[in-house]
Write a structure and sequence with these properties.
Blueprint: H1 2-25, H2 33-48, H3 60-84, H4 90-94, H5 106-124
Helix pairs in contact: 1-2, 1-5, 2-3, 2-5, 3-5
């Protein structure tokens, strides 16, 4: 359960950071650049969540998680555009977010995509300890 919460937090923080950066640069995610922004969210969450890079058996594993994460992030953005289309968050506009659809505000959708992907990675790659090998019995 702790791994799931940790994955949600890590993913949401990474998604919020990338989304806020994209918003400040002026990359509204309504166009095709949204796929790049949320692909980047998925790639960075793939590296940050799960086992740390220094505990991986090979460096190929985090690279593969980031490549797949790019596709997952872009795919989740595509799904969000189709499902959430014109949905507005009234609560977020009360805190100063612009009155635009959710999929057009990267600092609101980025954490959602990040927490979904982060939770999946943490649960899958939780870094559980392998059982210790029993020593062989001594022969007299």
């Amino acid at each position: 359960m702790l791994r799931l919460v940790l994955g949600i937090l890590k993913g949401a923080i990474v998604g919020a950071a990338v989304g806020y950066g994209a918003w400040k640069v002026g990359l509204g995610s309504a166009g095709s650049l949204g796929f790049v922004v949320y692909g980047l969210v998925g790639a960075l969450v793939g590296v940050v969540c799960g086992k740390p890079i220094w505990r991986q058996e090979t460096l190929f594993t985090p690279l593969l998680k980031s490549i797949v994460g790019f596709g997952i992030g872009a795919g989740l953005f595509f799904g969000a555009r189709k499902v959430l289309g014109g949905m507005h968050l009234g609560l977020a506009t009360g805190f100063g977010a612009p009155d635009r659809p959710l999929v057009e505000v990267p600092f609101l959708l980025g954490p959602l995509i990040g927490l979904i992907w982060g939770a999946l990675i943490e649960v899958d790659d939780g870094g559980g300890k392998a059982p210790a090998a029993k020593p062989a019995p001594l022969k007299p």
